[in-house]
Amino acid sequence: MREVFISYSQPDRDSAFELVSRLEAQGMECWIAPRDVAPSADWAAEIIDAISRARVMILIFSASSNDSPQVRREVERAAHKQVSILPFRIENVLPSKSLEYFLSAQHWMDAFPPPREPHYARLCAYLKTRLATPPVQPPEASSNPAGAGKVTLGDPQMQHIERQLAGYIGPVAKHLIKTAAMRASGIDDLLARLASELDSENERRDFLQRCRSIRPNS
Asked: Which residue has the higher pLDDT, 154 or 89?
């Protein structure tokens, strides 16, 4: 299992892959796009699944990643999934307001001034200690009642749900809906599962309110 997810913006690609080579040389398996995205796979789905399986996200933090909507979405999902986030600063910049909420309580590690080798060594030592601790196992999920996975909605209804959810979490909404629909026992269960992907009670309540029109007999 690839326990370390690497989040970076495209201008920092070389730095990200250099870091991966250092970590993997020390026996730590990393997930990084596009290397680990399967051919013809749904890009957003692959990223969400990789974040969910990871124990640590290393954020290659720079002015570029600070302004990247894709990086922000990855950080949001990691925070929601309670994946530990470690910003690895390669430039002396502070997080934007959109990232500060998720990163303000996180441990930071600076990778400047050069050379970076001592910083890589420090990061490797930290991760080895961090990953040596067994993960806390979540409680076993209860089995779905009979009829689970039988949610059937027309395309307009599913598109409506996707539009509403995407307004909060972006393009990953499509993947989350597909996964939830396979497990849900009905429309109310489906919407409850999707609402749980949102971070605040206000967002969950607003999402359910916006989707109430698709419930039977509403």
From this structure: 89
